[in-house]
Amino acid sequence: MARQLQTVQAQHRVPDRGDAWILGSSVASLASAIHLICDANVPASQIHILESRNTPGDGIISTGDPLNGYDHRPGCMPSFNDTCMERLLALVPSTIGPGRTVLEDMKELCIHDHDEDVPCTHILIQGDHGPVKLDTRKRLDLKNRMDLMVLISKSEKSLARKRISDFFRESFFGSSFWITLSTIFGFQPWHSAAEFRRCLGRYSSEVRNLNTNKPLDCTKYNQFESIITPMIVFLKNQGVEFRLNTRVKDIATRLDSGTVSISAIRTLRDRAEETIAVSPKDIVIISLGSTTSGSSSGTNNDPPSMTTMEAENELDENWSIWLDLATQNPSFGDPYNFCTRTPESRLESFTVTLKDPEFFTRFINLTHDRPGLGTFVSLKDSNWMISICIPRQPFFSSQPENITVFWGYGLRPGHEGNFVRKPMLYCSGQEIMTELLLLLGFPSASILGNSITIPCVMPRRTASMLPRTYQDRPNVIPDGTANLAVIGQFVDIPDETTVSLDYSVRGAQLAVGRLMGFCKEPVLELAIDLAGFAVECVLKSL
């Protein structure tokens, strides 16, 4: 049974009588600021976002150019959005046209691109004469369906530290059902059985349609330009203060009648230390952990740096703050469970910049998909478990007409390649592209000569999906605290699954509502019906 949210006696805060300090500029942080303005009526000038980088977005940034190659940092897994993200984007003005919202832009684009016959996930297997599509309509056999039902029938508390592989036989992990979920959400057999159960419960009513594009999957450009940038522009235009290049060194707390509250934030900016006094009327929202922490990009000729792949290196302040808070108070959970297990949480993405259309032409002939649908293709026989995406072009707003871009990721970068006989982690961009071309059966010489591939290792990309216990993640309002909320992929929201970006936005909405003392909380539109899903597993066969 999931942990119940504690009863929070939230004081009703007067919006214009206190400041809001938001530590980190993740999507959850930006969402918190937007909801403070739009839902809680907090003046934008009283909202302050502290970020150690020189650009907001928690390292989720897409950079590069046609000459040196583009680098799509979010490109490790598909973005999967839902009702909370929809509500958020309805508040954010479009950067494309006046009088519109980002949500309206996305829905209009989805209608334009809609194709009912094209799923967004294909699985290719090696046939007698090259790669062929796997029929994803094939259902799980009875034994695997029964195993699925056994997992679903378990209580969450009984699944502490349990892995998905503890409940399924090897044949399950070769099924199209599993490969589709693994491609969309990034699940691996060693990931949390409790998280997998939550995912099935959250999306039980549409599990067969998960590999079909939804309106919130449609963006004109990459995720950073189409979603994150409009959020940042809106907040800046409203008057929110972004303190960039500002690292949080320490957080001071006060104890009053058994309740902990934040009293000061100590920062370092341009080598100058500053102490920010936090009054009882102020609120502090902290983005805990970071799935982009330690990310490192390579080049077409060189692999990413190995130093960031070590567990103790490149822990940003989102982790250091959490580690410090957890040391002082067990209500903040156990960050060590998530930040130190990089062999189990790492992914490697790659972004390919093409100077001629040969790859796209051959790919279309192989999959029969037109470009721009955001189709994901998973290579079942790849030792690196490669999936690639052919997005709408141009993928970058500055991308010339004669340049095309696609991206992909490997779920098992520590394994040796099928053709390139070394782990993906140690490969240059060109070596990764060589492996991909050989897997697809495409000629390598001409395509390699007209392509630039930028690899990017993310050591903690799936850290939020690692096996955990009941106490490892804090509540949005940690037990026994007053003016503090924590947000992000590492907080606990009962019954909700961390696999989607919606989770961070839902946490932000909860944080704002509870800190400010009003009850406007996100409403679930999808019923969580594990019992019904279990029956369907057996009777209808997935």
From TrEMBL:
Q: Which Gene3D superfamilies match?
A: FAD/NAD(P)-binding domain
- GO MF annotations in UniProt: FAD binding; oleate hydratase activity
Gene Ontology biological-process annotations: fatty acid metabolic process
Compositional bias, Low complexity, is annotated for: 289-299
Region annotation (Disordered) maps to 289-308
**Alphabetical list of Pfam families matching this protein:** MCRA (PF06100)
Protein name according to UniProt: 67 kDa myosin-cross-reactive antigen family protein
Organism name: Penicillium hordei
